Amino acid sequence: MAQSNCTQVTEFSLAGFTEEPVTQVNLFLLFLLTYLVTILGNLSIIILIRDSPQLHSPMYYFLGNLAFIDLCSSTIFTPKMLVDLMSEKKSIAYAGCVAQIFLFDLFGITECFLLATMAYDRYVAICHPLVYPLVMSPKCCFQLVTGSYLLGLTNGVGQTISMSNLSFCSSSTINLFFCDISPLISLSTSDTTLSHIILTTSASLFGVSSSLVVLLSYVAIISTILSITSAEGKRKAFSTCTSHLTTVSIFYGASFFMYLNPSSGSSRGADKWAVVLYTLVTPMLNPLIYSLRNKEVKDALRRLMKTK
After folding, report:
1. pLDDT tens for each residue of 28-56
2. CB-CB contact of 168 with 211 (8 Å)
C-alpha cells in the first residue's frame, strides 16, 4: 500500500538527453528533421495507396495502416521532446504521462500485430497462392486490422490501469524523454505487484504471440522459396517480402534491445539511443524502405506524378 503521508506528485521531470546547450540545439535540429521526414513519408504512402488503384490489394491496405500507426506513434513523443530540448524545465503533467503511456502501448502493440498480419499475408501469398484471394478477402483484411487495433487498445487500457495503481510520493525524475510504464514502476512508492503482473502478462501474450506469428510465417515462406527450382522464381517470391522483412527486423530488433537488454535496468537510461531508434527512427524508415525497395510503389509514384 502507499505510504499514509504520501503526497501524490502532479508532474514528472524528464531527464532528456543532455544539459549542454549546443548539443541540445543540434539534437533539436536532428529530431525535427527526422519528424518532418516521418510525417512527409507516411502521409505520402497513405495518399499514394489511396489514389493508386494498382495498390488496392491486401498488402498495401496493411501498409497504409502501418503508415498511419507510424504517423500517430511518432507524434506522441516528438513534439513534446522538441519543446523540452529548447526548455530549461523538462517536465510532464501526470495526466500527460498517463496519455503517453496509453497511446504508446496502444500503437506499439497494434504495430506488432499489424506486422504479424503482414507476415501472414506474405505467407498465404507465397505458400498458398491459389487460395490467396479467398483467404485474404476484403472482409478478412478488415477483421485482421480491426483485431490489431483492439488488441492494442486492450494493452493500452491495461497499462493505464497499471499506472493508476501506482503512488509517487516525491518529485520523480524519469530517466527518458517520455513516460513509459517500466521506469514508473521502479519510481513508485506503492506495492507494484499488480503492475508487474500486468506488464509481464501483456509482454507474454501480445509481444511473444505476435513475434511467433512473424517467425513461423517466415520459416514457412523460406521453406517454400527454397523448394522452388527456378532461380528467377525464387527471386520473384523473395522480392515480395523483402521490404516487410527489413521493417520487421528493424522494429523487433530495436524493441527487443530496448526491453530485454539486461544492462539497461529498469529506467533504461543507458540505452536512450535504442529507445530513439524504436520510437523515432523506425517510423521514419518504414515508408523509405517500402518506397525504395518496392517496385510497385515506385511505379505507382511515377504514374501519380505524371498525372499531377
Report:
1. 999 999 999 999 999 988 988 888 888 88
2. no
Task: Collect all residues with Cβ–Cβ distance below 8 Å to 148 and sequence separation of at least 6.
Answer: 65, 110, 113, 114, 117
Give SS3 for 174.
Answer: strand
**Distance between CA atoms of residues 38 and 70, nearest Å:** 8
C-alpha to C-alpha distance for 65 and 51, rounded to whole angstroms: 15
Report the DSSP pairing between strands 91-93 and 173-174. unpaired
pTM of the model: 0.87
Question: How far lies 202's CA from each of 35, 81, 248, in Å?
Answer: 29, 27, 20
What is the residue type of 37? Answer: V
Q: Give the residues across from 173 on adjacent strands.
A: 13
Quote the distance between the C-alpha of residue 23 and its chain's center: 27
Q: What burial letters (b/e) apply to 239-252, b meaning 16+ CB within 10 Å?
A: ebbebbbbbbebbb
Looking at the DSSP bridge assignments, the partners of residue 12 are 92
Helix (H) / strand (E) element for 269: namely none
Q: Which amino acid is at 38?
A: T
Angle between helices 282-293 and 295-307 (to 10 degrees): 80
DSSP 109-151: HHHHHHHHHHHHHHHHHHH-GGGHHHHT-HHHHHHHHHHHHHH
End-to-end alpha carbon distance in the chain: 63
**238 is written with which cell numbers?**
523473395
